[in-house]
Amino acid sequence: MNIEPGRLTKKERHELILSEVRRSASIRISKLARRIGVAGETIRRDLIELGEAGLLNRTYGGATISLVTSEPVIAERGLTMVEERARVGRGAAGLIEKGSIVMIDGGSTTYEVARSLSQLSRDLTIITNSVGVASVAGANPSFRVILCPGTYDSREAAVLGEDTVEFVRRYNADVAIIGASALNAEGPSDMISGAAAVKRAMMARSLSTMLVVTNDKFGRSGLERVCALSEISDVVTDSEPAAELRAAINEAGGELHVFAES
């Protein structure tokens, strides 16, 4: 973030704090204060707000902080890579044809796709397990939105489980739009097994699959592989991947769409 220290807005401070914690798992308030260029008391207030929002776990005395889980919750992910996810969302939305039936799984990047789609006149049918996706897509009167049943997972603001998978299997779609926790030459992977199962179910009922990921997912591995790269029709991202990953995508037959910063 190219912003002069000490001149950050509260939202920008929060994003930087979360970024620093992800890199080191825990960090001292004094270090954060020096890094951001504000008083320690300002950082303490920020940590209280982030803790109350469920994004961080403060230790006793407020000297250090740590993430609650290894997979950031969707509320936290929404504070990071904001411009990158917006570009991916706009780019992916532009690839969806009018009148399509679209399955969209839960996630911060897939939400951006739905948000961009909702601003277009496309007469789409949206099938999703994400409360956020359903809400933003439902704002478009030309869309028909079908929200899956299932067990609500607050980490993802989405429903998961056997009921969700069985419900998805009732429908056919033109395209499944899925996100991922990580992407490497072996394919996309996710940190939540229930989410991976829903992605696979959506893919199985769709004619094509579009993977939407930001560049911070490149070269990483998640807990559970979702599928092979050969099962992905299109990869939509914000930055050119490394040569090895790009070669793997091309070899698998997928089309890479890069919507880089202009």
TrEMBL record:
* UniProt keyword annotation of Transcription regulation present: yes
Upper classification of the source organism reads: Bacteria, Pseudomonadati, Pseudomonadota, Alphaproteobacteria, Hyphomicrobiales
Q: Which UniProt keywords apply?
A: DNA-binding, Repressor, Transcription, Transcription regulation
Species whose genome carries this gene:
Mesorhizobium montanum
- PANTHER family tied to this protein: GLYCEROL-3-PHOSPHATE REGULON REPRESSOR, HTH-TYPE TRANSCRIPTIONAL REGULATOR SRLR-RELATED
Q: Which SUPFAM superfamilies match?
A: NagB/RpiA/CoA transferase-like, Winged helix' DNA-binding domain
Query: Could you give a GO molecular-function term held by this entry?
Result: DNA binding
Protein name per its UniProtKB record: DeoR/GlpR family DNA-binding transcription regulator
Query: Would the keyword rRNA-binding turn up in this protein's UniProt record?
Result: no
**Domain of life, per lineage:** Bacteria
